Amino acid sequence: MAPPRDWDAASYQRVSVPHEEWARSILDRLELGGDETVLDAGCGSGRVTSLLIEQLPEGRVVAVDGSPSMAEKVREVLRPQDEALVSDLVELELEDQVDAIFSSAVFHWVLDHDALFSALRGVLRPGGKFASQCGGAGNIDRLRDVTREVQEREPYAGYFDGFEEPWNYAGAEETEERLARAGFTEARAWLQPWRIVPPSPAEFLATVCLGPHIDRLPEDLREPFVAEVLAAEPEPLTLDYVRLNIEAKAPGS
User: How far is CA 47 from CA 19, 52, 185, 244, in A?
Assistant: First the structure.
């Protein structure tokens, strides 16, 4: 299994404005009391972690990300009682179980959802809550089609020999089945269309959507590649996101 890719944390912090709205919808569903220990699974640069911290004035956040630059960036918003760790989520182990798990816009980057949910179940205390959202079936389909077309053009084509998209945009029913296999109860998953017009379109594409593509290109072709993808999209750039929402609990009191 390939290790998680590192990210440009500073760029992600600038452009990930839509992620705040997604995160607030998850926090509403999590219904925190304010004194829990909560895992932020795939914390990113801290923009969303800050929202979680606001909900935990007497609690604690364990922020985990596979990207060292993201884990370093999130430390800027953490309090003394909070903690940041670098770990692949499918290999996650914690000294103590957490009261709740929160995750926003992360799980579609994990190809093995069975292993992911099994690892998360292992760190959640009996009766603990789990709420998240990520990209689901149908997510950014038009952008993905456009990107494939640009990949096949010269001078880019040779750099994408053997390239496979690094996303797992799962459906609701299969996700509920995986959660049940992992040992969660009261598992519920549903898809939700969510159209956005991102700020700074070129930087948003390069950082959030096309990072794995950019990584395969030499420096002098990265900006032109993003520009060609952007030119093939209508103006303003509008992305048809589909969010996979997840709710579940660990069995027990």
Answer: 8, 9, 30, 20
- For the chain, what is the domain count? 1
Whether residue 3 is contained in a domain is answered as no
Residue 143 CB partners (closer than 8 Å, separation 6+): 209, 229, 233, 239
Q: Which CB contacts under 8 angstroms, 24+ apart, belong to 216-220?
A: 216/159, 216/160, 216/163, 217/156, 217/159, 218/159
Q: Which two tokens stand for residue 191?
A: 């898809």
User: pLDDT tens across 87-129, in order?
Assistant: 999 999 999 999 999 999 999 999 999 999 999 999 999 999 9
Q: Give the Cα separation of 42 and 78 in Å (integer).
A: 15
Structural domain contains residue 27: yes
Give the distance, in angstroms, between the CA of residue 143 and the centroid of all CA atoms in the same chain.
Answer: 18
Number of other residues whose CB lies within 10 A of the CB of residue 155: 12
Q: What is the CATH number of the domain that holds 177?
A: 3.40.50.150
Q: Is residue 40 part of a domain?
A: yes
pLDDT in tens, 47-97: 889 999 999 999 999 999 999 988 999 999 999 999 999 999 999 999 999
Q: Is residue 92 domain-resident?
A: yes
pTM, full prediction: 0.90
Q: The domain containing residue 34 runs over which residues?
A: 9-137+167-195+241-249
Q: How far is CA 137 from each of CA 73, 198, 214, rounded to the nearest angstrom?
A: 30, 20, 23
Distance CA(64)–CA(71), nearest Å, equals 7
Separation of alpha carbons 219 and 94, rounded Å: 38
